[in-house]
Amino acid sequence: MASLKSKKLKSIPAEITVPGDKSISHRSAMFAGLAKGTTVIDGFLPSEDCLCTVHAMVALGATMEPLEEVEGVGLVKLAITGNGMKLKAPEKPVDCGNSGTTIRLISGILAGQDFKTELFGDASLSKRPMKRVADPLSQMGAKISGQGEKICAPLTIEGGPLKSIYYKLPVASAQVKSAILLAGLQAPGKTTVVEPVATRNHTERLFTHFGIKWLREDDCVSVYGGQEPKANDIVVPGDISSAAFWMVAAAATPGAQITIKNVGLNPTRTGIITVLLRMGALVTSSETHTEGEPRGNITVRGGDLNATVIGGAEIPNVIDELPILAVAAALARGKTLIRDASELRVKETDRIAAVVSNLRLMGVTVTEHPDGMEIEGGAKLQGATLPCYGDHRIAMAFLVAGLFAEGTTTLEGTECISTSYPGFERHLDLFLNGDAGARPIPVMSTVPQPLVDKMNRDKA
Ligand code: S3P
């Protein structure tokens, strides 16, 4: 089992560039694989989750050509060639690894295909509820079976002719919305999803990028069936959910300043900026690119943070940032309340239980609630040996907490970080060791043959 250590931070780097956005990388690979022709994806996030999506699309008939690799990070530029919406039956069950986005969105794609597929994942993914996608996709005409009441993976999806639906989401989930819209592309007529609260809209923005017409009316998103994505090269911005770790590290360090370059600024994802501003950090963002997925630079200046309340409609916007925001709350003055966030209990681990337990092990007073927690800020954090619970965001949030703790903080099981942030350790090093950690990152123009073989392994 891998472990990583953290200790009091040495300095905050002036600038950092984080790897590509996970949600956009997943969707780019899927849409490229559904389009006829070749799409070059630059700025791709080569995390295990997104590579699962690439493997899945290759298993379903697309081809992948690796174009550029960054040492210590992975494949950041690739070309995917699809054959249109009619996919090929995979030769074996498709491995979705740890990735909820892969299994849920691919379920929507497979719902309209005329073959049967098995989708499986790791132990964590196999515990997560898939009923939320199985229900609407079954209503549309797919036959979906899974394990137990929550319809967990392994899932069997028997696709076929679909009918469009008007579906009110019982939980605010971009993954479920996207699965239904992807199935809707394959159903005659108009498929509408009603969102109880707005969630990230990357699928909709990528629909536009790939030439698919869709519409938003109030809280409804609709798409008409019978459309096929058109191949169109894309450049993925940096992931604000990865930037969040360094934004909090700077925000909690009075006098510090960091600029995160070329990061996604989609308003359905920038809730972290709003929350940090409310807590007293000085955060500015400057958009350098407004089309498609807006992107630009975020600058954070640290100060004394104050407690806040995080809840209601802003929760989907900060859902993946709540573990690191809980760490920010522990470093702030006063009591922070996180509420309306019971969705955290069905992420890669139960993130409410994991955050509460790890904060307590570091000496913070926390009250656990069914839908969140109350954190008493201002205590001196104590270094501790902590579990990651196999969850990348728990691992990274507590390594950042360790930058503010007395002594050493050890996170055990840190291999999970590669789920979303290859190269995290190198970036953490910049905070632990200052410039000594700033090793140049070479770009290679060719990709080693074993990787090419591995990526195309299901194609033959
Ligand atoms: C994601 C949506 C969110 C988020 C996940 C990625 C996506 O999940 O937590 O990390 O790419 O659509 P839900 O939509 O299930 O809330």
From TrEMBL:
Gene Ontology terms describing biological process: amino acid biosynthetic process; aromatic amino acid family biosynthetic process; chorismate biosynthetic process
Q: Which residues form the active site?
A: 320 (proton acceptor)
Which molecular function term from Gene Ontology is one that the record holds? Answer: 3-phosphoshikimate 1-carboxyvinyltransferase activity
One GO cellular component from the entry?
A: cytoplasm
| Enolpyruvate transferase domain sequence ranges | 9-428
The UniProt catalytic activity note for this protein reads: 3-phosphoshikimate + phosphoenolpyruvate = 5-O-(1-carboxyvinyl)-3-phosphoshikimate + phosphate
Protein keywords: Amino-acid biosynthesis, Aromatic amino acid biosynthesis, Cytoplasm, Transferase
Protein name, UniProt field: 3-phosphoshikimate 1-carboxyvinyltransferase
Name its species: Prosthecobacter vanneervenii
Give the gene symbol. aroA
